[in-house]
């Protein structure tokens, strides 16, 4: 993922034996218990009611919830009434007790589909990058005006670039971020870029917005983003977007490679290989019964 100078501390050239510190995305930091006003908010109370259904009992009554959560029965009843109306919770017509509703199942399916998409994409990128020394593949997604690394997959070496999963970069300062922004509706992309610029935090000067828009148009026309040393000297990048059924970008698949004589032909090969990866991922996800609209 080609990035600006602000992010260079996160990228390290590493050899086969180099020790690389990384963030393990499989073990996220546990959020602390909310306190004070946040804990007493209506939203927090509703979420605590939903969390109560994670226990062994498949159905729970108002009195049990009131004792378990230390909330008044009237508060519990109001929350349950709203959750039932929104179909997150159902009430058994016989026992009058409550159980998980259809909306919770639907959200769970969305989560599983997203995990499946990530797993399939990682496997396809791992297979592809294995043929390319001096290269590293990434999965990334937009978070507002930033692009966040989801997965990092090193090629066979002997030297690769490496960025920790969880690294966050200003999207318009990266080939990968621009590729994702390019496939958003132009007005939305402009809004995201403008808000991110107002937030600041970049040691690089933001380019003229017309130059950025022209780059977005070029990416859309050819179907991929590319750069050769544009953001980091000696680092070349190719990126493609995996989009949902409406054409909105979900993930970016990208490859960084060092500008060595041994990698001279990668700029011609990688666009096709990454686009083939996207097509295979879409086929595999559809075959699983899920979809890329998650």
TrEMBL record:
Q: Which InterPro entries match?
A: GAF-like_dom_sf, HTH_MetabolicPath_Reg, Tscrpt_reg_IclR_C, Tscrpt_reg_IclR_N, WH-like_DNA-bd_sf, WH_DNA-bd_sf
Q: Which residues form the HTH iclR-type domain?
A: 40-102
Region annotation (Disordered) ranges: 1-39
Q: Which Gene3D superfamilies match?
A: 3.30.450.40, Winged helix-like DNA-binding domain superfamily/Winged helix DNA-binding domain
- All residue ranges annotated as the IclR-ED domain in the record: 103-287
Report keywords, A-Z.
DNA-binding, Transcription, Transcription regulation
Instruction: Enumerate the PANTHER family for this protein.
Output: HELIX-TURN-HELIX TRANSCRIPTIONAL REGULATOR, ICLR FAMILY, HTH-TYPE TRANSCRIPTIONAL REPRESSOR ALLR
Q: Could you tell me what this protein is called? A: IclR family transcriptional regulator
Please name the taxonomic classification of the source: Bacteria, Bacillati, Actinomycetota, Actinomycetes, Micromonosporales
């Amino acid at each position: 993922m080609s990035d600006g100078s602000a992010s260079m501390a996160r990228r390290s050239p590493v050899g086969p034996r180099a020790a690389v510190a990384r963030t393990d995305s499989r073990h996220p930091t546990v959020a602390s218990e909310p306190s004070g006003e946040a804990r007493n908010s209506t939203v927090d109370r509703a979420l605590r009611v939903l969390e109560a259904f994670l226990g062994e009992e498949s159905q729970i009554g108002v009195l049990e919830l009131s004792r378990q959560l230390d909330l008044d029965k009237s508060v519990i009843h109001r929350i349950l009434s709203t959750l039932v109306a929104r179909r997150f919770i159902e009430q058994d017509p016989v026992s009058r007790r409550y159980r998980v509703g259809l909306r919770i199942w639907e959200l769970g399916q969305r989560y599983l589909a997203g995990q499946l998409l990530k797993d399939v994409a990682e496997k396809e990128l791992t297979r592809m990058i294995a043929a390319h020394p001096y290269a590293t593949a990434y999965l990334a997604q937009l978070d507002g005006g930033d692009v966040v690394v989801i997965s990092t997959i090193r090629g066979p070496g002997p030297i690769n670039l490496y960025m920790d999963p969880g690294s966050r970069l200003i999207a318009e300062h990266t080939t990968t971020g621009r590729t994702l922004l390019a496939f958003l509706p132009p007005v939305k992309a402009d809004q995201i870029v403008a808000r991110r610029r107002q937030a600041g935090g970049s040691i690089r000067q933001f380019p003229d917005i017309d130059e950025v828009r022209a780059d977005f148009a070029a990416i859309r026309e050819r179907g991929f983003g590319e750069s050769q040393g544009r953001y980091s000297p000696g680092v070349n990048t190719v990126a493609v977007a995996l989009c949902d059924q409406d054409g909105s970008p979900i993930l970016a698949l990208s490859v960084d490679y060092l500008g060595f004589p041994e990698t001279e032909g990668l700029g011609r090969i990688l666009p096709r290989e990454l686009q083939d990866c996207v097509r295979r991922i879409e086929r595999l996800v559809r075959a699983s019964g899920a979809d890329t609209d998650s």
